[in-house]
Known about the structure:
By secondary structure, the chain is α/β, with parallel strands linked by helices. Helix content is about 35%, strand content about 25%. The chain is built from 13 helices and 16 strands. The chain has helices at about 20-25, 45-50, 60-75, 90-100, 150-155, 170-185, 195-200, 200-210, 220-230, 235-245, 295-305, 310-325, 340-345; strands spanning about 5-10, 15-20, 35, 55-60, 80-85, 85, 105, 110, 115-125, 125-135, 160-165, 185-190, 215-220, 255-260, 265-270, 275-280. It has a nine-stranded mixed beta sheet. A hairpin with a 2-residue loop joins strand 14 (about 255-260) and strand 15 (about 265-270). The longest helix has 15 residues, at about 310-325. The chain is globular, with a radius of gyration of 19 Å. It starts with 5 loop residues before the first strand and ends with a helix.
Amino acid sequence: MGEAVLFGMGNPLLDIAADVDEEFLKKYDLKPNNAILAEDKHKDIFEEMRKRFEVSYVAGGATQNSIRVAQWLMRVPNSTTYMGCIGDDDYGHILEQSARKDGVNVVYQKTTEVGTGKCAVAITNLNRSLCAFLGAAEKFHESHLDVKEHWALVEKANYFYIAGFFYTVCVPAILRVAKHACDNNKLFSTNLAAPFVCEYFKEQLMQVMPYVDIVFGNETEAATIGRTVLGIESGDLQAIAKALVSLPKINTSRGRTAIITQGADPIIVATESGVQLFPIIPIAPEKVIDTNGAGDSFVGGFLSQLVQGRDLKECIKYANYAAHEVIQRNGCTFPEKPDADFIAALP
């Protein structure tokens, strides 16, 4: 495994997290375990969180989280590359320092037009609601890939991951990377990201889907795409996973894999061969601190083994381990080193 084997591109955000109350959710029209883009009615949300609650700051953004977790488990510095757009401001500097400290080679596009993106992470009990102000993240332009040194990193990578939130920002850049992967028989993966992506950005998602080798999602996202794209109103997750696998695919040298997580219930993995179920790692409810980043860390754990040529069972094992570790901490954070003994003891 060499440098820059895994490439990610997405919306780099600074997560501002706090335990809030139901009144706060109601005021800003936030729903538990959901993710939305900030509107005018959310303009005061960050200031109110800082004034009313004890907040923490963590480098975030779905793809960046997954890449950071993969890097943590791969243990070889600069095995991963990440691109996205940040503001030329203090928040941007914090993000860059944090990602580099985690061993990720971040190659940010920078803008002075608007500040670094932020995401309010409103936590109530074991639930979290995300409200993202994309800021500089939505200024990403495909021209960033025109820089010779930047495109060289794309060419160097053999595995690619772009979460669905980026479909709201720069589809041309996604398609350029996805087509490169397809043309060179490299592996391209994506994530359904959030119900609003599956509902309001389904056309963009479907533009990219023919290039997708692995698609991740959770039960809510899967049910939404089942209803909006696949014509499956029942919410039957196994049927939805199989339907995702069956969507048209350009690179027919490998079939598509669809992976749907469903909280404490078994993980659904669909391939052309059929459907398999994998149990999660059991955890006592009192040990769960924050489910924010659980899905991102699951993807990161999976990719960390995929890039090393490990089989599906091993990829799921590390995906489960990463999610299990992250939900016991605030934000998408992790200990200095993975727990090798704990991982070895997993079935």
